[in-house]
Amino acid sequence: MNGRLAEMKPALPQLISFHQFSGLDHEDSHTHLYTFYELCGLVGVSGVDEEALFMRLFPFSLNGKAKAWLHSSKNTETRIAITTFAQGVDDPLCEAWERYKSLLRRCPNHGFEVELQVQTFYNGLQPQTKMILDTSFGGSVMFRTAEEAITIIESMASTNFRSQHGRSSSHKRGVLELSTQDAVLAQNKLLSQQIEALNQQMAKLPQQLQAMQANAPPT
């Protein structure tokens, strides 16, 4: 086990407990998960150690009926594993996606809405994997519906699976196991899409200004 994980300071669980989620109507579970991942990032671990860290610390982030929900089932460990899912550094997309879906199947009463399932999976992905997904979407996955996101993820995972199993072990390279050059190309493509969208918005600006002037009350 990573030394930083084994020597985790008591201050970190205490810090996380200051940002607890109780499951009340005015609370946002998405914001809570983002804050939780951000705080866990202070430890600076990755891969298997990162997932172990999430599972150890997540109960400290809950309170009230949210904590009661966590402990209300024999599937407590699976629920934590779902909520704190993380793609391994060397895991291709197809394996990460199947592992995540397997966790959901093992705990059919997990209580997570589809939107939260997608966001939890996306948040747990490696940065390069997120970049490729965002490029395929033409923007952030989080701006799409859950159904659209799942369709794209399934398609890319299927392509990744065929790539993984269609080559010899000495030449395997998943679609999402990117070299530095691949990552730069993907980032440039996403940037080009964003610039194109901005140019389209700017082209509409004169018409919008004319419409505003035409509708302005006389002075």
TrEMBL record:
Superkingdom, taxonomy of origin: Eukaryota
Keyword Coiled coil on entry: yes
Q: Kindly indicate where the leader peptide sits in this chain.
A: none
Among InterPro entries, the record links this protein to: Retrotrans_gag_dom
- Does Metal-binding count among this protein's keywords? no
Tell me which stretches of the chain form a coiled coil. 181-215
Q: Which residues form the Retrotransposon gag domain?
A: 77-127
Q: Which UniProt keywords apply?
A: Coiled coil
What protein name applies here?
Retrotransposon gag domain-containing protein
What is the protein's species of origin? Cajanus cajan (Pigeon pea)
Its organism's taxonomic lineage begins at: Eukaryota, Viridiplantae, Streptophyta, Embryophyta, Tracheophyta
